[in-house]
User: What shape does this take?
Amino acid sequence: MLEASTLDSAHLFAKAVRGCKQSADTLVHECADLNGKVEWVHLLCRRKAPRGVVRHVLLNAIAKHPRCIHPEVTGSRALLRELFEYAAYPKPKRAALTLYRGFAGAEQGNARKGYYWSSLRGTAVYYALMRCWQHDVYSPVILASEVIDRDIAAATDIDAKQHLSDVTDSEIIYECIVLREQQRATVEIVGVAEARIRTDAFEALLLTANGADGMWGPGDADAQILRAREWLENYENIAAYRNASWR
Assistant: This one.
């Protein structure tokens, strides 16, 4: 439900339809409901607001993955297609066609349908590991797919808030929003050695972030590191048991 049928919101919406980006920004930002943010942008499309206004707020509206854009939700893909077809972000210049997604093995059915694909394999590996840590499962997997330009709705920075028109620099970490299900994506299991390397790097990142700017609350970093370390130890034991069984 849109929470703002108030005069203020109606005024902001009317100004946004006429082309005021600041009003559109305020309208979306002040809506506490994540689905509601998307609904405001959808209404801007339906009312034929300038495309520049829609481009200005669309990525921010979906950045926190509101429920209405989850691929398993009926109508989600059609909604995103309508929003992005209207916004018509320029197709990005890219250095490579291959994009990656990370997931826990049991999620494979939905993973191919997912909208967010990374330019870097390592980012996908991190995501796969984090999904495993969160759900206490031991099947970190990545998908790799050659995604053609017409299937990409937008390329964004890693926070998924800023559109990028040129991602030919291979050092740039970016995500692509992909609206066609990638049925031909190849599947690769993340091995123990790589999981160990990535877990060490994750620990260093958490400790640095915790000390630098307080992005993790007291104890949060330690708890996450402990969970990751316990998971890695179990993953190593499972792999060792399987190897012994196959001999």
Summary: Residues 93-189 form a domain with the ADP-ribosylation fold fold (CATH 3.20.170). The chain has three domains: 8-87, 93-189, 192-242. The CA atoms of residues 1 and 36 lie 6 Å apart.
